[in-house]
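Hi all, a correction to my earlier message: I attached the wrong file for 3'-kinase. Here's the right sequence:
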Amino acid sequence: MIRWSLTKSTPVAETPRSWIFRVEQNGRNVAALKILKPAAFEDERRGGALLAWYGGEGAATVFDSHGDTVFMEWLDGVPLGDAARNGRDDEATIAIATVVSQLHKPRPDAPEDLTPLRERFRSLFETDVRAWPHTARDLYARSTGIAIRLFDKPSAQIPLHGDLHHDNIISSGRGWLAIDPKGLIGDPAYEVANTFLNPLGADKLAAEPRRIAALADAFSSRLGFNRKRVLGWAAAHAALSACWDIEDGNPIFGQLAVLPQLLAAYDQA
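and the right structure:
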């Protein structure tokens, strides 16, 4: 608080990885303090370094950091997921594409210790197929095969947000801005994979074949991504997400609703 001349510290959120405080600087400007928890320090530090590297383009601005604390822009808007959940999914898709185009702008001096995308997929490759429901094991096998082919085919390797979805994009006076990057490096087309499972609470929307096609078309036309590759990463990520939930003992109904539709779209692409 003394380092950055902050006052009126108000706790606003606690996650498994951090504490968030709303603060004022010099009694005027509202900002946020994010204090990292020890167990998640390395992962969060990596994401914080990437957020700072974005320089406020398409993402919340990091003003400074020290030790386990990040001093950053306060976003008091609503998540983009609200638009999708309230019948404005097409607008949300355009916003996501715009954010990605800003995040992926070439910049010098990228952080050096970003997590390779293949490492992010470790759970998919190491999961025992028998952990999946018997009727869904073919989905796991097909998705894993697609992931292997994607990794084996050379692609550009750029810094990735790594967890970009509707509710990690917040409105602000500067437009829609991303928060909470994971700090990965890999195929640019992976960046939009998580959007196919989202927004949270909209499983029926996510499983609609027409919506899947519309997302793939938008990301292909607006970002120049290969459409089949986008759908391949979407299917691979849905299976990865299911593996994470299986590890945590959570149900995978949402992933199982979307994955067959993603695989069918991939086959047709």
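Sorry for the mix-up. The chain has ten helices and ten strands.
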